[in-house]
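User: Please predict structures.

Assistant: First:
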Amino acid sequence: MSANQILVLQSPRLDPTRVTELSILAGAANVPAIHDGVARVSGCNPARREVVLERAAALGVDANFVDPERRFADFGLVVSDMDSTLITIECIDEVADMQGLKPQVAAITERSMRGELDFTQSLRERVALLAGLPEAALAQVYEQRLQLMPGARELLADCREYGVKFMLVSGGFTYFTERLKAELNLDYTAANQLEVVDGKLTGRVLGDIVDGEAKRRLLIAKREELGLRPDQVIAVGDGANDLNMLAEAGVGIAAHAKPVVRAQAAYRLNVCGLDAIRKLFL
């Protein structure tokens, strides 16, 4: 943390008491006012960073240290994971539920997202369990179970307002990313393609798997295509397979993430919606 960074506090429950306690803990000379659920604390002691973040988490406050002059309009690209990041569900778990296999598949998904299993191998194992499922089950999941993460529409509106491109990259499936692209007017998407024969899933994925390294490469390729610097890219994710792209981005945000991701990401959102991303900056 550089000496000139400010502490940005956000929470649906943000109040003067929490802001005062965290400002004092950060060594700030003044306690700022709250505007639109956000308080920006200047003059913080860099040595107090970890104790501030720990106490903020206990108080139910998202705390992040950011450059004071950084504007959201300075960025050119937001790259986001899909499952449990832009949307509230893990699509493969809900599809598996149509086969009566959600507990088994969800357990593998959880271990993979915690970084305990190889992502590519675990995905192939989970997809294999879906063999024979009618393709119509995918539509049922999209129409009946898929919900956007709180703040997602606001974040996308902010991206459009400030001219920031939005790329959805997923270790999930094109069936869902392409429909979200059309519904939400997303700029770019990338995901895995399920093989379907005679209207049924074969239990196989076509082509190379979009894993953590592929997400990183996709981010780099799009960044270079758009002529952006690394510091002009924001990446958002929740699982271990997002760590590479979070590290590659100028701003890597762990959003409602697994502990292994929170521990490594420079920015964290644990209680706020995705609209808090724009509010980190001017």
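Second:
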Amino acid sequence: MTSFYYEVCLLKSPLANLTYKSDDEIEPGTLVEVPLRNRKNNSPAVVVEKVEKPTFKCVEIAEITHKYYDSKMLKTAKFIALYYVCSLGEALSIYTPFYEHKEEMETKEFISNIDLSNKQQEAYEFLQNNRAGLLFANTGSGKTEIYIKTIEKHLNNDKQALLLMPEISLTPQMQKRLEEVFGDYVAIWHSKVSKKKKEKIIDDLLCGKVKLIAGARSSLFLPFSNLGLIVVDEEHDESYKSDQKPRFHTKDLSLYISKTQNIQIILGSATPSSASFHK
């Protein structure tokens, strides 16, 4: 029987990629279980690529799951590993693997009924004409209305949207405001959401029942299939920086994802960082 050889990365491990073999053909990005010497239980790993038969003896992949990381996740994780100096396994561990879902084709028109002022309309039109833009305005000047109008436009074009906010800003009032316009198509994502609820949100996102995620920095790594907009509110906030490996900056990663995947991005703040202001 023909054996195939694969380079895999161990999730949450600082180790370099290892080579395993299998009698099955496995797609890159597939979540697998592999044995490690001196460990009783198998370890979760991700298939990176198929390789030539090495000169050394290889151990068999123990289990092939039906969960996977898509090509966009793999590409971004490789960038994270290189830019933030960590292993690919550590970089991929911040993503959520998923099962293949069939998206439900349901057309829904969202109407916000928001009337923008002249200044807001001017800012809104500028943002629509630029893939990346900084919305620099004082607190209470109406940035949220511009966010909602932009989100509304993308959702009505059958796209998904992500509204990133510091966890402290994800208040019941903000949730209610978004639900008034987007109803059950919006989901809130942060550290206090239960594991069971998070699993349902991911299923609904994959099926098309959720089109807008408002969440803390970890929501950037959810399995979006058709993301059209990223909004980074309070882009200067220090909570967007991860203090554990991989030590990424959510704003900078959002800009990278926006550029490589041709996604519109809006950075918003009353006190923007000097780096964002001068860009």
